[in-house]
Design brief:
Helices cover 78% and strands 2% of the residues. It contains ten helices and two strands. Strand 1 and strand 2 form a beta hairpin. The radius of gyration is 24 Å and the shape is elongated. It has a two-stranded antiparallel sheet with strand order 1-2. The protein is mostly helical. Keywords: Membrane, Transmembrane, Transmembrane helix.
Length: 336
Amino acid sequence: MDQTAMFLTFKEYSRWMQHFTSPPIKWHPKKKRFEYRTHRFKYYLWCLHTFIGLGGCTAGGVGVIFLSQMFNFYKPLPLAYIFLFVVQLSTATAGFAINVGIVLYGKDFVMGWNTLRRMEANLQNQGHDHRDSCSPQRNYLWITMTLFVWAFSTYPFFISLSAIFFHLDPYYHILSMLNINSLYAHLFRFYLICTAPAELCRFLAFIVIISISTFQMLPSSLDLLLQQNASPFSVMVGRMSGNPVESQYRQVQIVLLSIESFIGFVCLIVQGLGLANGILSIFLSLIFYATLPIWLYWIFPCIAVMVLIIALVIMNYLHNVADYSDKLFRILDFFN
């Protein structure tokens, strides 16, 4: 895999999306590795945005709005707003859950990811194999990911402006529902409007690029490892030097175990997101039957199907990694 192109993508991620707050997992451009750090002011500010902003105010506020529409203790909202609030509820809940997963499993994931990156770089240097660095498909992939990061770094600006001018945020309706006219409450509302979209876009960009980099490096490392031990002579030299291929192969498996907890947690959240979208789409279809254009009923089921397909693809990559074990068995059989 071309690590240079990957580093450029992560450099743009750190340049545009690692500001103001600091999640536990942070990319260090100079060291070219992830770091897991807590107990800093920016980390506590990130916790405030996660637990209060995304969890309590956004997801909780949208839930209260849905209850107000069901039991008619607040003015009826346009149907387009209801659909937008469904999207906000799904993304805010997913962002809150995955950020909790970063706190729980992030340290092991960072250690495993950094070890995997060093292992692949060492194997490339030992074997002088640079085929992947010349592959245009791989380069196009990371160029696309760089554009993806740039796009998600600009989305919060437009989302915040839309929320302010069109009252698309749940905080405005919660304040109106409770008849709160305090200046500090409205200032906190504007603060959440600016920070919540930024946190959501950052976590989405982080999850996408970190997952792709993991699934790129793992098969590449195993392939390079077995290419360098493709003959009985190379296996014999490795054993005589105290670094047999079985030991190196086992190291990659240990790295996979350290990464699997976080990636598996992400897959679980994505599958739950798809299921929740399906349930909410059915519920809204029953509530607003015969009041919406028929084509609107296809939006959320299609989103739910897409999310489930993505989750199943990720789970398939995770649990059916190309481990090249058949090649390893042939190599060991030659030696024995």
